[in-house]
Design brief:
- It contains 5 helices and no strands.
- The chain has 162 residues and is an all-alpha fold.
- Helix 2 runs parallel beside helix 3.
- The chain is globular.
- The N and C termini lie far apart (36 Å).
- The relative contact order is 0.21.
């Protein structure tokens, strides 16, 4: 079944973001995943974990249950832990890829009735419906991938877009 028209652009953004994130982190060392420009900024580990956590939350709004035991480390508003508390880059990338597969399938299967339900408290929704949350979270994800790309450049690597 094709992706419903009201979320087609968001579905494409999620697809693009899957590759963008992979390219952003592909040649970073495990130490670079945890490097931060200052004590009050997040590292790439937290950013990647957070966008995976956000995909989990989006999937739940679409009626699909997908989770990993450590995703709570990356919930909105959670403070950074010691570096040792976080999963390794390989585990984060595996979760990213798995979430991408599950999300792509769910976006193709989601029914209009689900998307037209009123948005509950949480992320903004321009149309006041679940469809608006799907669209907003695509923007949210792109924002965070931009942050990771900036950190990549800050560490001296070539930028994501050249």
């Amino acid at each position: 079944m094709p992706v419903p028209a009201v979320i087609t652009a968001a579905a494409e953004n999620y697809r693009f973001n899957t590759g963008f994130l992979e390219n952003t982190v592909k040649d970073l060392s495990p130490q670079e995943w945890l490097k931060r420009p200052s004590d009050h900024l997040n590292h790439i580990t937290w950013i990647v974990g957070h966008v995976v956590w956000t995909r989990k939350m989006l999937l739940a709004r679409l009626g699909s249950q997908w989770d990993l035991p450590w995703l709570g480390l990356f919930a909105r508003g959670v403070k950074l832990e010691s570096d040792a508390a976080y999963p390794a880059p390989d585990a984060l990338l595996s979760a990213w890829r798995e979430s991408a597969t599950v999300l792509a399938g769910e976006l193709e299967r989601v029914k209009e009735e689900v998307l037209s339900q009123p948005a509950t408290q949480g992320p903004p929704s321009a149309d006041g419906k679940v469809s608006g949350i799907v669209n907003f979270l695509a923007i949210h994800e792109t924002y965070h991938i931009g942050q990771a790309s900036y950190l990549r450049s800050w560490m001296g690597h070539k930028g994501l877009m050249g």
